[in-house]
Amino acid sequence: DKEPDAAQDTEKIQKKIVLGFSQVGAESNWRTANSESIKTAARDEGIELLFLSAQQKPENQIKDVRSLIAQQVDVIAFSPIVEYGWGTVLKEAKLAGIPVIIMDRGIDEQDKSLYVTHIGSDFAEQGRKAGRWLLEKVGDSNERVNVVEIQGTFGSTPTNGRREGFIEIIKQNPNIFVTNSKAGDFMRSKGKEVMEEFLNDKGSEIDVVYAHNDDMALGAIEAIEEYGLRPGKDIKIISIDAVKAAFDAMKAGKLNCTVECNPLQGPELMKAVKDLMAGKQLPKRIVINEGIFREETAEADFINRNY
Ligand code: GYE
């Protein structure tokens, strides 16, 4: 015979945690792997997931977060498309008593009480890794090196960090110049368009492309080939993410290096959600560990890559 109280307790214990997630969109291979990782990890951990995608439009994303507040989910997590504009809606979440976890990209917000933790990469460090690779390649040659930069989404944390970290390092060599810089929104098609513009402007003078993600680097590779130059040879290409397609390009000699940005953050997020619901204290920042991959070792590094 079950006591009514005991039955209620069991019900409480078995009640699933409901997590609302607002994703950036589906702009890149990285993002696809990231969304998959979140969905799989939620399933594995028995967390009910309400997954919304903002199609890279900040105004959509604010609406999405608002709708998750209205649905009274237990926890809200999101990867902010851009860093600014979050104060109002995060205050609404706080008033509703819903804790917020920031994942992947960050926010520019003074009031740190508006979120529990930020799980994600160190984007400036990724930029520094890209910069160090270039310094190494240039060595002590005194020749001028012209770099063009294809940036990610304007106002997003990865764009800001990857730019700053890279500049910080290449400054050490006065022969390296960033001669052109434009946003390609982390998309292959736009990366190609931006590269076409750069080539039409000063094609023959470009030595290096620094693309803020692999998809845009792949677009740039297409543009360079159509222009009649050899990507990876006539023009060196550095990018960030290290998705499968980047390894294929490295193995084909068309991409020279890719800095790792690990999209498999789902398990880390679910752990944070569970800890939070169990009343544990979370660190304010959880940084993902990452490396760099070079064309010379792409073949060996590629094994076991599943995104
Ligand atoms: O590098 C890019 C994606 O926010 C780290 O967003 C992420 C970036 C990633 O579109 O491919």
UniProtKB/TrEMBL annotation:
It comes from the Bacteria. This is Monosaccharide ABC transporter substrate-binding protein (CUT2 family). CDD domains: PBP1_galactofuranose_YtfQ-like (cd06309). It is found in: Cell envelope. Residues 21-281 form the Periplasmic binding protein domain. Pfam families: Peripla_BP_4. GO terms for molecular function: carbohydrate binding. SUPFAM superfamilies: Periplasmic binding protein-like I. Its main location: other. Keywords: Signal. It comes from Anaerobacterium chartisolvens.
